[in-house]
Amino acid sequence: MTDLNNALELINAEIDGVITGAQKAELNRLLLADPAIRTLRDETTRLCQALDSMPRDDLPAGLHAAIVTGLPVAAPRSHSLRRQASGGRPLLRYAAAFAGGLLVSTLAFQLGKIDAGQLRNAELAGTIAATGQAEARMLVNLPQVRGSITLSGSADDPQVVTALNASQPVSIVTQLHENGLVEVQVVDDATATVLQRGKLRIGSRP
Amino acid sequence: MNDESDGALVRRTCSGEPRAFEGLVRRHEKTVFNAALRMLHDREEARDVTQTVFLKVYEHLGEYDPTHKFYSWIYRIALNESIKALQRRKPTAVLDFDTPDGTPGPDRVFDQRELSDGMAAAIMSLRTEHRSVIVLRHFMDCSYEDMAAILELPEKTVKSRLFSARQLLKAALENRGWKSE
Questions:
Q1: Least CA distance to B143: which residue of chain A?
Q2: Rounded to an integer, what distance in angstroms lies between the CA atom of residue A171 and that of residue B51?
Q3: CB atoms < 10 A from the CB of A204, how many?
Q4: ipTM over 0.90
Q5: Are residues A179 and A126 in the same domain?
Q6: How many CB atoms lie within 10 A of CB B8?
Q7: Which fold has domain B94-181?
Q8: Residue B22 near residue B47, CB atoms below 8 Å
Q9: Residues 102-121 of B with CB under 8 A from A
Q10: Which run of H or E residues covers position A109?
Q11: Of A21, B8, B12, B24, whose Cβ has the fewest other Cβ atoms within 10 Å?
């Protein structure tokens, strides 16, 4: 790296407040040795000061109100729609990253379904308890998250209802299969580790 | 002023309290508007973009990954919407990059108002990729790490682009007669 390129990197690091002690010493050496580098530093510093001192415009009158009143009446869906990398199958992921609070939410499936054959029984690890004619519930009792994930509604219109209390960020990943089976995963967001798996089907029994 | 974190407001909104979203709007609207304004140099377009950004954020709030910073997500949407607005402009649109009195001299020192106007025009003279990093760093106060996340680029690339953008901006100002003294 030439002195000029090196100096440019050091000057920008200094302006952005990320210069280390060793870099500062190196920059000082370059500044002492080369007046062109001193000029470059002065000009770049002044430019950035001018940029940072530019006034921020106030919001146009009525913009805040326009934003708020322009929002849909319905609350946003708390589940995201994602697609698997292979096959483009519907995958619903609910990032339930919260700490200490009870979160109750509902997920309505709207995408297509996939074949049940994709699931392996060995993946079943959750406790599934029927709670009624049209509900299946998976209990979650982990150090990171406790509560329940309930499948309700009908096979044609299933809904996943979560009531979870988490002590660290977790995601609930659900996947609807062709036969109405819903695969559920509780994922530790920090490590991307699946903490618990389960399968739910409307009308299922323990 | 609402002291709740962005994440808490997102969770409340998604949990059926859509009014909690107003806290997010209030917190980020001015930054989003100013970023759009610097990207577009047009208050009406910046206004439209700002409104679109918050609508999109609301509609896609469930897709927000809480392991990332909320403002990085919203700033990325703001930047993308601004770039879309630029792309919608008619190719014949010409921006006025002359100095206010039209007679730039090599050694003129601008007053604050002239400098602000000149700077805004010089920013607009940059290519979008360079303008974006200037706006993110100097108008949205993003760190290198934030910028890398927003632009989905390696941090090294972001730094290099920012350093180049500053030099290009300095040159653009000097062409307009700005003297950095």
A1: A16
A2: 30
A3: 17
A4: no
A5: yes
A6: 16
A7: Arc Repressor Mutant, subunit A (1.10.10)
A8: no
A9: 115-116, 119-120
A10: none
A11: A21
Domain count, chain A: 2
In 3D, which of B28, B82, B54, B26 has the Cα closest to residue A70?
B54
Report pLDDT digits (tens) over B12-35: 888 888 889 999 999 999 999 999
Does residue A149 fall inside a structural domain?
Answer: yes
* CB nearest A47 (choices: B50, B162, B166): B166
Q: Are residues A35 and A84 in the same domain?
A: no
Domain boundary assignment for chain B: 1-91, 94-181
Shortest distance between the Cα of B18 and any Cα of chain A, in A, equals 5
Give the residue-averaged pLDDT of A153-158.
67
Claim to verify: residue A134 and residue A176 sit in the same structural domain: yes
Enumerate the β-bridge partners of residue A91.
Answer: A82
Give CATH for domain B1-91: 1.10.1740.10
The single-letter DSSP state of residue A179 is T
Report if pTM > 0.90.
no
pLDDT in tens, A42-89: 999 999 999 999 989 999 999 999 999 888 877 675 543 333 223 333
Which chain A residues touch B60 with a CB distance below 8 Å? 76, 80
